[in-house]
């Protein structure tokens, strides 16, 4: 088990004087980026690491816990692990066993619950047709609006499936989620959701799709369970950075906050999560139901589908998009990339700090991409030494 996390008060009890003359690394953030680097630096390179997080728990946004009813929930929204990277999957497999899980999502459109990503069944059921895979390809070609160069999130969808499907499945959802029209967002946002001509109704098509058998938090506990890693929760790094000695910082929080917003606030989209427990075994047919056109929330997710837990009750979460609040999503659009570039210049000029993760590098990354980025960062930090000793 991981040792008891340190609280700021522990410093007054002399723990720090006796335990250490200083840390090699101060890691800000105990999410995927911070925890992977802590693990590698401590276990592989023998470095002394202090991980601080201002939240009262490890795991960052992937943190999970049992709610009052005893249902395993994801307080920061549903987190489904999927990757095509064998390296990432093998690395995480050192800290957890897995439960195979393939996520399925239905979209509530025109009074029906239809598969999203759009596939042949979506089209047939929406329009009352009976097209084959081949015919649906022709159908898409007949309704698609050619776009000279696909630049925006609107272009991606209308150039593939036309205006009606775009309006029904993407326009409203995106406006709600981002507070922007798809035409104001980079193509990469809606391009996350493919279009299919077959009957595959899985949300992801990656080679590895699985959930940590005992949850994410247990996996993070195993990662951080090392004598060279100390974890201090409920602590902003600014509270301790000047009086706990450290050599190098790894920062995984929002990059604009690190530089005191000197070029202005970099937009991050937030969400409000509303959790409910219901006295029934199942609330909805699949892990997530999207509501592109109705209600103020974008989607409802039911955790037991995702975790495989058996329980007489069930817990769900509604996601309400917000402009203000904890930063969850970078907002991919040209003017934000421009502003990020200004901060990125300062990152270059701050050699004793390494910036890693979704918020610190302002990239709309999934968990596996953050793990890959952190592993690559470790190789860069330790150079040849890391490559030689990697276990
Ligand atoms: P975070 O997890 O955000 O960790 C950063 C940590 O730094 C936080 O714990 C924060 O408290 C701490 N911190 C920040 N500033 C300070 C400070 N000043 N002092 C101390 N600590 C600080 N990815 C998937 O692969 N599959 C999914 O299904 C999926 N679903 C998602 C659903 C939602 C609603 C959201 C928001 C994200 C989802 N993601 C998903 C993305 C996933 O959450 C991220 O890729 C991953 O958690 C990012 O890890 P990170 O370490 O970069 O950042
Ligand atoms: N999207 C949409 N309709 C949907 C699902 C997704 O318009 O039914 C768009 C929307 O802009 C969303 C983006 O595609 O923000 C990416 O969707 P994803 O499910 O990957 O979002 P995340 O899980 O990261 O919130």
From TrEMBL:
Domain UDP-galactopyranose mutase C-terminal: 168-364
Keywords, comma-separated and alphabetical: FAD, Flavoprotein, Isomerase
The protein's name in its UniProt record: UDP-galactopyranose mutase
Cofactor: FAD
GO cellular component: cytosol
Molecular function per GO: flavin adenine dinucleotide binding; UDP-galactopyranose mutase activity
Organism from which the protein derives: Deinococcus koreensis
SUPFAM superfamilies in the cross-refs: FAD-linked reductases, C-terminal domain, Nucleotide-binding domain
Family recorded in the similarity comment: Belongs to the UDP-galactopyranose/dTDP-fucopyranose mutase family.
InterPro entries: UDP-GALP_mutase, UDP-GalPyranose_mutase_C
